[in-house]
Amino acid sequence: MPLQTAPLPLAQLLQARRDRLAELYPDPVMLWSGQAVSRNFPANVYPFRANSHFLYFAGLPLANAAIHLEGGRLTLFMDDTSPAAALWHGPTPSRDTIAAEMGAAAAYPYEHVDHYRAESTTLPSQAKSNPDRSQALVEALVTLRLHHDDDALAQIERAAAVSVAAHRAGMAATPNATTEAEVRAAMEQVIMARGMTCAYNSIVTVHGEVLHNEQYHHTLAPGDLLLADVGAEAPSGWASDITRTWPVSGRFTAAQRDIYDVVLAAHDACIAAAQPGVEYRDLHLLACRTLASGLVELGLLKGHPDSLVEQDVHALFFPHGVGHLLGLDVHDMEDLGDVAGYATGRTRSDRFGLKFLRLDRPLAANMVVTIEPGFYQVPGIIGPARQSGQYSDTINWERLDAFQGVRGIRIENDVHITPTGCTVLTAALPTKADAVEDLVSGV
Ligand code: GLY
Ligand code: MN
Ligand code: MN
Asked: Are residues 232 and 103 in the same domain?
């Protein structure tokens, strides 16, 4: 579906969201932005990020603010900046100016929030309120935020475009970099220079087997694969989430390319199958079967791919789900537990191969999800599995030794589900091994 070219004025966009909330949840709601947390003295604060549920309806990244929503009407509670604060931080728009921008019906100093607390429902994480009403509010918010409006999609596209540029910069910087930190800096430089922030802590590592590695001190060796999971967040808060894995030397070894192509086949199979009505869990299982089948062809696994997946053998090398919801947060709405990720009546499986699945609902138009299969050799998983003798019929351990240098590969894209299929929002960044090599080598 074509996106709007001219964005709606903020007030109009927010009014539409508030009206939809009022249809789903007519009772009064209070949402808090959160407060900046100071580090050692009051003016030295940790980077502040407003709560995403607040942002969805308030549209502006305010701190120390609350909004009251009822019947589509918004009341803003926040204090005007004091002269003392303005001395250090500069002038800021007045409460009334901000209220007008978001289309508020009324605006009061923050302390007035107390007059509305008792009658309002809020999120369980924000304050105590009637648990049944909170649950109904959570379900209404999930219903709204699962399916993105045109403005949200345009914002995610903006963030995705900057992430694509950041990954290109990371690949181009690799030949002249000596450490992971230098490549990370080249990538985040692009995000910062475009006025965005990172949607999560960047992962830029030659130890891709550490799934959320946040260390950047390793030196880059010519035979290493570098895994970069870096995503920009637009000033409006909307996120993107991309992973690429590339050879430091600019050329995959034969073993690295073999596994890379298996992961890419799993990724491509999921993208080809993604459309409304398809169960996300089935995409995960499709990725698992495609991985298993590729690993059988390489002689690493033994047996029928379906049976290997049923036994969770593939999960020794792919110990996470194939992706998650994306929106105002990476792993969107996981602050609500599994309410957003799991359809009503569904709960997480105990199975090793399924318990890390973050999303188990049918896909629907205007959801945005990631597709991010991977292959990892995690010593804490592979070592005990080999020792146990349990997998002698299904894993060719000697053959695996030939792939020792392939510690971690992940390929991740952001996918907008359309009425008839899907659009890869991050498609401008190549995935094919040859094209990735060219970007690293500057060909
Ligand atoms: N960037 C975190 C993830 O891909 O899940
Ligand atoms: Mn992701
Ligand atoms: Mn990621």
From this structure: no
Q: What domain range is 112 assigned to?
A: 10-144
Same domain, 249 and 347: yes
Residue 131 lies in a domain: yes
Q: What is the pLDDT averaged over residues 337-361?
A: 96
The whole-number average pLDDT for the span 106-122 is 95
Distance 291 CA to ligand 2 centre (A): 18
Could you identify the atom of ligand 1 that is nearest to the CA of residue 231?
Answer: 1
The total domain count for the chain is: 2
Q: Three-state SS across the chain?
A: CCCCCCCCCHHHHHHHHHHHHHHHCCCCEEEECCCCCECCCCCCECCCCCCHHHHHHHCCCCCCCEEEEECCEEEEECCCCCHHHHHHHCCCCCHHHHHHHHCCCEEECHHHHHHHHCCCECCCCCCCCCHHHHHHHHHHHHHHHHCCCHHHHHHHHHHHHHHHHHHHHHHHHHHHCCEHHHHHHHHHHHHHHCCCEECCCCEEECCCCCCCCCCCCCECCCCCEEEEEECEECCCCCECCEEEEEECCCCCCHHHHHHHHHHHHHHHHHHHHCCCCCEHHHHHHHHHHHHHHHHHHCCCECCCHHHHHHCCCHHHCCCCCCCCEECCCECCCHHHCCCCCECCCCCCCCCCCCCCCCCECECCCCCEEEECCEEECCHHHHHHHHHHCCCCCCECHHHHHCCCCCCEEECEEEEEECCCCEEECCCCCCCCHHHHHHHHHCC
Structure confidence at residue 7 as a pLDDT band (50, 70, 90): low
Cα 28 to averaged position of ligand 2 atoms, centre (Å): 34
Q: Is the pTM of this model over 0.85?
A: yes
At 73 the pLDDT is 97
Pair 132, 158 in one domain: no
Query: Ligand 1, residues 243, 245, 411: which to mutate, most atoms within 8 A of Cβ?
Result: 243
Q: Is the CB of 437 under 6 A from ligand 1?
A: no
Claim to verify: residue 95 and residue 197 sit in the same structural domain: no
233 lines ligand 1 (CB under 6 A): no
Residues 359, 428 within the same domain:
yes
The answer on pLDDT for 391 being more than 90 is: yes
Boundary residue ending a domain (144, 169, 197): 144
**Based on the domain organization, do 160 and 126 belong to the same domain?**
no
Model confidence at 111: pLDDT above 60: yes
Instruction: Establish whether residue 372 lines the binding site of ligand 1, counting it when its CB lies within 6 angstroms of any ligand atom.
Output: yes
Residue nearest to atom 4 of ligand 1 (CA): 241
Confirm whether 265 is domain-assigned: yes
